[in-house]
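Handout, section B. The chain below has 208 residues.
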Amino acid sequence: MLKSNNPVSRLAVAAFAACILASSAFAQQAPTVRIRGTIESVDGNTLAIKTREGTDVKVRMTDNVAVFAVVKTSLSEIKDGSYIGVTGMPEPDGTQKAIAVHIFPENQRGAAEGFRPWDARANSTMTNATVAQTVKGTDGQNITVKYKDGEKKVVVPPDTPIVTFIATDKSDVKPGAKLIIFGAAKKDDGTLEANRINVGRDGITPPM
């Protein structure tokens, strides 16, 4: 690279280098896709999956993949201070009606915190937040959750699926199991790769 004593030229060179670095960093951030479905076969680190939409995809698990079993738990396990994810449907009064709740292990507190659109069903939402208050209501449990940018009031009907994550290993990754992959990375060659797999245990379909 040519050297220059001109301050303007030096600034231009620095700016150009910064743009190259930023472009490289952006290129390295592979887009991700969410996958729900059933494991059809396992070949080494490669999963053949029939998605919820009926398409066939293959996902390669990374060598250091984290595997979590999705297991049933109860509403009574949701306490003040719990960090939870609420799959919800917006109600006219501004509350969220839960269609599923998952309780995060303590070491996952803060994961994907916030409120966002979700694809469990049309118009559904996801709120990952800390429970500030729980009160028994006429239609179920009324829960106030708080996250860094705000709070939501959630009604959890009695029949709402409540699940949690348990760290496990690849023994739970087997044909017939239902799974959800929150963010499979799409590589330049079109292949999909996942560093985390969430598998329903005992026939559970991850409800989130």
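Note. DSSP finds one helix and twelve strands in the chain. Compare this with the example in section A.
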